[in-house]
Structures are given as C-alpha cells and as structure tokens.
Write a structure and sequence with these properties.
Pfam family, one: AlkZ-like
Strand order of the largest sheet: 10-13-14-15-16
Radius of gyration: 21 Å
Number of domains: 3
Protein name: Winged helix DNA-binding domain-containing protein
Number of strands: 16
Helix content: 25-40%
Strand content: 15-25%
Distance between the termini: 46 Å
Keywords: DNA-binding
Structural class: alpha+beta
GO molecular function, one term: DNA binding
Length: 370
C-alpha cells in the first residue's frame, strides 16, 4: 500500500496529539511521546500545553519534584524528559550514543584518562549527594590535574547514568546543573539488557509509519535495519518515493482530509526532530530555515504543515510566516498566540508579524546563540 504525504502528515499529527488537544494527563502524554525534548528548559511545558486539553506549569513541575518524570541525556544523547520507568530502560540503550559522542567531542582532551576509573570515581563522588557539574569536575581534577576541565565534567555525564534534579527543568529556572545518580534518585536499578525492539515499537506508536532511517535519526542508534526487518507482525507500506515504511499492525491511519488546527511548537519539538525525511511536515527549503546546525527553531503549523517560525522574548511574540497568510488564518494564529502568551505569563504581551526572511536567527533563551 502506498501512502502519500498527506496521509502521513495527518497520521503523524494524530499520534502526536496535534489534531485535537487530548484529554490525557501530562504523564500519559510524556509516555505517549516516549520522551519529550528538553534541551531548552521551558520547551517541554509548551510542547505539552499545545497537545493537552488541560495543562499547567505546576502539573509538570510536580511530576519532576515527585520523581515520576526525570530529566537526563537520552535519545541522540540530548536532554529529554521521560517517565521514571521509561528512563530505566531507555538510558541503557542510549549508552552507545553517549559513549560515541563523548569520544568525538572530548576524546582528544581526555587522553590518559581511564574511562572505567572515571566512571567509578564519578559514582563514588555522587554517592548519596547532589553535585553541580563544576563541583564534580573539580573533584575529578584531583585525579587528573592535566586533563581539560570541561571535558572531564561532560565525560562523567556521558559515562554514568545521571539525572538533573529540580529545580533544574522547572519553568523559568536556569543556572548550575545538578547531578544525581539516576539509580539513587529513582530508587531502582536500571535495566541491564533492554531489547531495542521495545524502543522501535514505542517510536512507531508515536511517530509511525516511518522508515528505518527515521527511527535511527530520532533515536541516534544505528544499524537497525535487520532489527526492524526481524520484528514479527510489523506492517509495511511505501511512500510515494518508494521508501519502505513500518508500522504497528493495529495502528490506524488518519484520513487525509481531516482538518488540522494551527499549533505552536517549541524549540526542538519532538515532531520536527523525529524523522530523517521531514517532508511530511515541511519543504526542504523550510527545513533549512528551521533546522540550523544543532538548533531547531520554534515553528507553527498551518493546515497541518510548518507555516513559519515564532519566538517569545520580553513579552513580545514574533511570528514570521513563510508565505502570506489569509486573514482567517492570521486570526486563528493570533488567537492561539494570545493563549500561548497567557500560559507563559506574558498576559500584557504583544504580537509582532514579520515578513518572510526578516527575522535574525537567534538561539534558545540562555544559549550561546541568544
């Protein structure tokens, strides 16, 4: 069966809770999405707000303080929020990604550092307490005084399952990142050999139908072709370019004529980063504007696909459409923008509309690009 991009678009939006706001709890939504992108502190709050019928900032903060949801390095080695139970098996699967990324970024700067010893010392220093990255780095420097200090801190985070505890991850809170051993914070050990098939199945439930390359781009794992092909009962389709797409056998497809409301997506939103082939969501030209290096800009959806970019700073929500918009669409966006600003606490804020190409690229608040 061949699936056109419109069917793929609507099916993905449905599974991503973007065709209608869902009557799910925040924990249920995070489980549905497998893990929520959290490289920018406030982004998960906005990503859940745009997907759920009822959601407040305190809803997610309570889950973090209550240890039902944790923040740490997971998919692609980047920061995510995940349910505590999901973290225990996803984190071991992503160790290979973190090890590879550490070697690429800091291998030369940590020559002479025994990584097994580094991991053991990291565990000893963190046992029973919370340390910031600089505090842990300074303790490790006593053993390797000639090593590059930042490289030691980041290497420790890559080699040992560490979570970032509240107030890290709380709306509007930035500062030193606290480190805590994941097993201690969760009160349970991590799984020793979780099956990668579990991750593939969870991905397909939330993002499918999708190709093997899509799964690999989303997860950061490689060499999954044989794994996926060997999974029993997966259903296969083709897209209009002949690519093989996989899906769960009982997962429904959405009709291509289902209406899609406007939606605002935050920095690094799951929907945008979940595919190798992102044409079901935007054109190649739009992708170049949205995905710049490691940065994925906030976008808004019009008619189910990316219609432009936006940003909220200092009480001003800036909207930059990629193309001229009809008055009724601008009105719908303005209404959704007002609700977004109210959620973000910018009740006295204003909206600025920019023509395509007028906005200077900036990074997330608090980043080096900002």
């Amino acid at each position: 069966m061949i699936l056109n991009r419109r069917v793929l678009n609507r099916t993905t939006l449905d599974r991503q809770l973007l065709l209608r706001r869902a009557a799910l709890s925040p924990a249920e939504a995070i489980e549905r999405l497998v893990a929520v992108q959290a490289q920018e502190i406030d982004a998960p709050y906005l990503g859940l707000w745009t997907r759920l019928a009822a959601f407040t900032q305190d809803d997610l903060s309570s889950l973090l303080y209550g240890r039902q949801v944790v923040r740490g390095s997971l998919l692609r080695g980047t920061q995510h929020l995940a349910l505590a139970g999901d973290y225990t098996w996803i984190r071991p699967l992503t160790q290979v990604i973190l090890t590879r990324a550490r070697q690429a970024s800091f291998g030369r700067a940590t020559q002479g550092v025994d990584l097994d010893e580094l991991a053991q010392l990291t565990r000893e220093h963190l046992a029973g307490r919370t340390l910031t990255r600089p505090q842990l780095r300074d303790l490790l420097l006593r053993r390797w005084p000639e090593a590059d200090p930042p490289a030691l801190g980041w290497s420790a985070q890559a080699m040992v399952p560490i979570v970032h505890t509240p107030p890290n991850g709380i709306w509007g809170r930035r500062g030193a990142t606290p480190f805590r051993l994941a097993e201690e914070w969760l009160g349970r050990p991590l799984e020793t050999a979780p099956p990668v098939e579990r991750l593939v199945a969870r991905y397909l439930a939330a993002y499918g139908p999708a190709s093997v390359r899509d799964v690999q781009r989303w997860s950061g794992l490689t060499r999954l072709q044989e794994v996926v092909e060997a999974m029993p009962s997966l259903r296969t389709y083709q897209d209009t370019d002949g690519r093989v797409l996989y899906d769960l056998p009982d997962a429904p497809l959405a009709a291509e004529d289902v209406p899609a409301p406007v939606r605002f997506l935050p920095w690094f939103d799951n929907l945008i980063v979940a595919f190798d082939d992102r044409r079901r969501m935007m054109t190649a030209g739009q992708q170049k504007a949205v995905c710049v290096g490691a940065v994925v800009h906030p976008t808004f959806l019009v008619g189910g696909t990316v219609g432009g970019m936006w940003d909220l700073r200092n009480g001003v929500l800036t909207i930059e459409p990629f193309h001229p918009l009809p008055d009724d669409v601008r009105g719908e966006l303005a209404g959704e923008a007002a609700r977004l600003m109210a959620f973000a606490g910018a009740v006295q804020g204003s909206i600025t509309w920019l023509p395509p190409g007028d906005r200077k690229p900036v990074g997330p608040p608090g980043s080096a690009m900002a």
